[in-house]
Amino acid sequence: MKRTLLLSTMLLACWWDAAAQDTLHLSRSQCEAIFLKENLSLLAEQLNIPMAEAEVKQASLWPNPQFTLDEINLWATRHQTGGQEVSPPIIGNWGRNQQYAISIEQLLYTAGKRKKLMALQSVGVEKAQQFFNELLRNLKLELRRQITELQYLQLSEHAFQTQLQSVNDLLGAYERQLEKGNIAATEVTRLQSKQFELQKSLHELKQQNNETQKELKQLLHLPPQTFLQLSSDQFERAITNNSIPTYQTLVTEASTHRPDYKLALLEKRYSEKAYSYEKALRTPDVTIKGSYDRNGSTMLNFVGFGASIDLPFFNKNQGNIQKAKLGIQQAKTLSQQSLHQMETEVAASYKSLLNAYTFHINIDAAYLQKLDQSLEAYTRNFLSRNINMLEYLDFLESYQQNKLSILGASRDLNNAVEEVNYVSGTELMP
Predict the structure, then answer these.
(1) Which of 34, 84, 107, 147 has its Cβ near the most Cβ atoms within 10 Å?
(2) What gap in Å lies between CA 417 and CA 354, rounded to an integer?
(3) Over the stretch 95-116, which tens digit does the pLDDT of each residue have?
(4) Residue 23 lies in a domain
(5) With the CA atoms of 53, 54, 55 and 56 taken in that order, what torsion angle do they form, in degrees rounded to the nearest 10?
(6) What pLDDT is stored for residue 295 in this prediction?
(7) What mean pLDDT do residues 204-210 have?
(8) pLDDT of the residue at 181
(9) Distance from first CA to last CA of the chain, Å, rounded?
(10) Torsion over CA of 54, 57, 62 and 66, rounded to 10 degrees?
(11) Exposed, middle or buried, 10 (CB in 10 Å: 0-12/13-18/19+)?
């Protein structure tokens, strides 16, 4: 039993190691290409467009004619015919004195109901397209945020691993000096404490990395065991004052391209078409028919024509017409709300972009490289006893905070740019 358990554990470990090695290296643009091709939510929503087009096709069809075969007698007795031959046979000797009736009916729409229903369903096609665009807009924002977050976490991990490597090297050297009795044990303890602190921070970053990986793999529909390694390309946005659009430009672009605002306007059109269709329904439709009756009247072979129509004395579709009319007022109100929401979101995202850009440009572009060089210099000086333990640990703390602040500034600027693209409904800032 123990051997079986040990073997199972070893196999599981081997499988996990193999799965962990399944690393996929991607850039931001490659992630977006996979997303557009593989995202299941997009593929499912896209099917709503041909489904809506099928509804237009269905609305264009006329109702089928109705065929009725009725009043068939399987036999005729002498009592029924009075001993007389009422009618000759139909085929051979079959059908003598037989009665039956045949009729065909066709419903005819009036008041242009069919065209008005087609116009109503055509607006439904446009709504389906805008629903797809809205889903794409929201999922793109989520995708790009997750990509930026994963880039930030991986770059942060690299920074912590650099610090941890420096501390590990120092700790190894100090442990050898402690064995020789050249330094106090407290100095080794301080370094071990810093080592544990960095290991804990790395552990937390890896946990966040794992959560972000999960979200990204769902968006990209990647195998669960895949490990994503993103390049740092496009994490640093090359933005200048000239590339930032004005507030009025954002409002204009948003009112032209945003799917949710277009949907609000389409709801108004849809309500107007629905009102027109409901008003047409108060006009009764006409049913025309032709019939043939054998032995059913004084005539042996009777052919007749007729028509039927509802008499709109009680039901003139008043309730549905009133409901559709109120729907127009409701759609107008909601479109005004959508416009106000759009303008509010544009103003907020524009201010956030300016704040993120201002903070980002105030950071010296070479400062990040200087930090890494300073870490190497401080490590050498500490080994050479040119600085003490407290100075070295203070620098490590400062290095960590500054590194994360600089990376965070790039992350915030990235997110602000994507938010501007999101509220404008177009790729205004690439």
Answers:
(1) 147
(2) 10
(3) 778 888 999 999 999 999 999 9
(4) no
(5) 60
(6) 85
(7) 97
(8) 86
(9) 61
(10) -30
(11) exposed
The predicted-structure confidence for 356-371, as pLDDT tens digits, reads as follows 999 999 988 777 778 8
- CA dist., res. 19 & res. 236, Å (int): 31
Q: Which two tokens stand for residue 305?
A: 């024509």
* Residue 237 counted as domain residue: yes
Same-domain check for residues 206 and 80: no
Cα–Cα distance, 17 to 369 (Å, whole number) = 35
What letter does residue 242 receive in the DSSP assignment? G
Q: Cα–Cα–Cα angle for 126, 128, 130, nearest 5°?
A: 70
Pairing of strands 286-294, 227-230: unpaired
- Two structure tokens written together for 195: 């080592």
Does a structural domain hold residue 2? Answer: no
> pTM (2 decimals)?
0.88
Q: Is residue 220 part of a domain?
A: yes
CA nearest 283: which of 57, 114, 58? 114
Cα–Cα distance, 331 to 265 (Å, whole number): 8
CATH number for 231: 1.20.1600.10
Report how far residue 97's alpha carbon sits from residue 81's, in angstroms, rounded to the nearest whole number: 8
Beta pairing class for 301-309 and 66-70? unpaired
203 with 273, same domain: the answer is: yes
Q: How many CB atoms lie within 10 A of CB 22?
A: 11
Q: Do 351 and 267 fall into the same domain?
A: yes
**Alpha helices of 180-281 — where are they, by DSSP H?**
185-220, 247-257, 259-280
How many separate domains does the chain show? Answer: 2
CB 103 within 8 A of CB 290: yes
Nearest to 349 by CA among 250, 275, 281, 427: 250
- Higher local confidence (pLDDT), 390 or 90: 390
Residue 76 CB: number of other CB atoms within 10 A? 16
Which residue range forms the structural domain that includes residue 248? 28-62+109-282+317-424
Question: 309-318 burial string, b = 16+ CB within 10 Å, else e?
Answer: eeeeeeeebe
Sign of CA dihedral 247, 253, 254, 255: positive
Give the closest residue to 221 by CA, choosing from 93, 369, 33, 401.
Answer: 33
List the structure tokens of 267.
Answer: 């709801």
Residues paired with 105 in a beta bridge: 66, 289
The contacts of residue 344 (CB under 8 Å, 6+ apart) are none
Amino acid at 285: D
Alpha helices (H) along 94-184: 113-179
Asked if 104 and 65 count as a contact pair (C-beta separation under 8 A), the reply is yes
